[in-house]
Amino acid sequence: AATLALPELEGRMNGVALRVPTPTVSIVDFVAVLEREVTKEEVNAAFKEASEKELKGILGYTEEPLVSSDFIHDPRSAIVDGLSTMVIGNLVKVLAWYDNEWGYSVKMVRMIEKICKMASS
Asked: Which of 6, 46, 79, 121 has a CA positioned 20 to 30 A from the CA of residue 22?
């Protein structure tokens, strides 16, 4: 809507407003300036691949039109919302959902399991 009032900013700015009506789910709004220009498809493909390989079970990726309550009790550290990824040249904005209560508890249990395994070795 801002570019309707300021058409000279078309393609140079973008934004998002979120309403998160749950007490436990939050969203990370991550912005990065990369060394080279990329496309939205490249960024999303990288997150999707990471969620299926080296970060499977830790990072999630979705292109479904989900809302905050859909992530209640999700054990992963973050779930990238591929529909919300924005790219302007080398400037990238990624949104990722997480259940800050449940997800944190899951991480603590995994840490305790790892410590117990190390202690018994």
From this structure: 46
| Number of domains composing the chain | 1
**pLDDT tens digit sequence for 52-62:** 999 999 999 99
Predicted confidence (pLDDT) per residue in 47-87, tens digit: 999 999 999 999 999 999 999 999 999 999 999 999 999 99
CA angle (6, 11, 16) in 5-degree steps: 80
Tell me whether residue 71 is in a domain. Answer: yes
Whole-angstrom distance, CA of residue 26 vs CA of residue 1: 25
What secondary structure does DSSP assign to 7-21, as a single string?
A: GGGTTT---------
- Is 89 a domain residue? yes
Residue at 107 is within a domain? yes
Residue 15 belongs to some domain of the structure: no
Report d(CA 109, CA 17) in Å as an integer.
Answer: 34
2-36 tens-digit pLDDT: 677 778 877 766 666 666 777 889 898 889 989 99
